[in-house]
Design goal:
Length: 415
């Protein structure tokens, strides 16, 4: 229960298995994108081909990281906008010469991309847009993500099931390969953290009904009933744990103290018999009500909020309804604080390479940590993670670094 895998990393592994089906087409387009980025003269020629193709776009071409499928998605999405420009370059002798003479580990590089490669990339980008949106949503750091996990998993599984019905097609073969990796990490409940399902139940828009419908969609009836029973058992065990932790223990009075003369003096007189019986019935009825009531059952049986309400804020809801469900709200406070992805924290510290450069290599670890955290706090906004914007900033930074190196060495690259 205390081990939480990064869901974005698992999704990365799932999609990377699907990438193998069109690895050659991706490699061809990657090498084509690398061409205008390799020198200033080639970039100038590429911009000229963009003008010839009447392409007006401020977006830059970006290279991907082969182990990060989301960067491959962004690379292909950007490259498809410049497809006509690359087709015009096919008639350029320097462009074709680049693919003939360039070598990687002694082998000729793939490319240039042909029409069939661009078609594959277009289908692939359309297919992966759903997975990219899922990754973006679960990688946020300024909102609760643990309650989103189950919904996003159902979306991914739904896409894989639909496309896997026809394995003979390109997308069908990709879906089958991705489904195998999906089942490895998310196909068995024992390998998943149960708190992710508890977080969904603690979402007032979902509760137990979302888990029931989701399990019915993902699994057969027998497996669904078994998993649902396991989730309910864990949920009530967790509730009882918080109840014992929050509710103060009640100490019963010593029976020996009730014997003797004091017991006789404690009997009510005729004058205050009405007050005595009123207090007696009040205590007994309150005790019966306490034994019958269960705060968790009250929450689950209460009306659910509208699932389609995009403006719904789960933290505000629990703050308002915290007094109604004191024990369950404490559960929600702890469970909903879980982040299902480490992408946000990793991106915050990935700037370390730009802070600790050769000119500032003597900074102490404590100072580097202060600079990184300070930059992250100052630049944080109440918006989702803008991955594309960050990648454009990195690309612009790398381009400026390359231009600086070219000026310092005073070398001209002949295209």
């Amino acid at each position: 229960m205390f081990h939480m895998r990064c869901c974005a990393h698992i999704l990365n592994l799932v999609v990377c298995d699907g990438l193998k089906e069109i690895s050659h087409a991706i490699s061809c387009i990657r090498n084509a994108v690398r061409y205008p980025r390799s020198s200033t003269a080639r970039l100038k020629r590429f911009k000229e081909s963009c003008k010839e193709a009447n392409i007006e776009s401020r977006a830059l071409l970006c290279l991907d990281v082969s182990t990060r499928w989301n960067s491959t998605f962004l690379m292909l999405e950007a490259a498809l906008k410049f497809k006509k420009a690359f087709e015009i370059l096919d008639g350029d002798a320097n462009y074709t010469k680049y693919f003939e003479e360039e070598r990687v580990n002694g082998k000729r590089i793939d490319g240039p991309p042909i029409h069939h490669d661009w078609e594959k990339a277009q289908v692939f980008v359309k297919f992966l847009r759903t997975f990219y949106k899922v990754t973006t949503r679960i990688s946020g750091s300024l909102y609760v993500t643990s309650n989103l996990f189950f919904k996003e998993i159902c979306i991914v599984q739904g896409n894989l099931k639909e496309l896997g019905k026809d394995p003979s097609t390109l997308l069908g073969a990709m879906a089958v390969s991705m489904q195998q990796k999906f089942d490895k990490y998310w196909g068995n409940l024992e390998r998943m953290n149960v708190l992710l399902y508890i977080a969904t139940i603690l979402d007032p828009r979902c509760k137990m009904e979302a888990i029931k419908h989701g399990f019915g969609f993902l699994y057969d009836d027998e497996t669904s009933a078994k998993l649902l029973k396991h989730i309910e058992d864990v949920l009530y065990k967790l509730y009882n744990f918080y109840k014992e932790m929050i509710t103060p223990p009640t100490h019963s009075s010593d029976p020996s103290q009730k014997s003797g003369p004091s017991a006789a003096s404690s009997q009510p007189s005729l004058d205050d018999s009405d007050d005595f019986f009123s207090t007696y019935f009040t205590q007994k009825l309150d005790q019966d009500n306490a034994m019958e009531s269960n705060e968790l059952d009250d929450y689950l049986n209460d009306r659910r909020e509208k699932f389609s309400d995009d403006s719904f804020d789960i933290l505000v809801w629990w703050r308002i309804n915290g007094n109604r469900y004191k024990i369950v709200s404490q559960m929600a406070k702890d469970v909903l604080a879980i982040q299902v992805s480490t992408v946000a924290s990793e991106s915050a510290f990935s700037t370390g390479g730009r802070i600790l450069d050769p000119f500032r290599s003597s900074l102490s670890p404590k100072m580097v940590q202060a600079l990184i955290c300070g930059k992250n706090w100052l630049s944080s906004k109440k918006e989702p993670l803008a991955l594309r914007q960050y990648m454009d900033d990195v690309e612009a930074f790398e381009d400026s670094e390359n231009a600086t190196k070219d000026d310092e060495s005073c070398l001209t690259i002949d295209s």
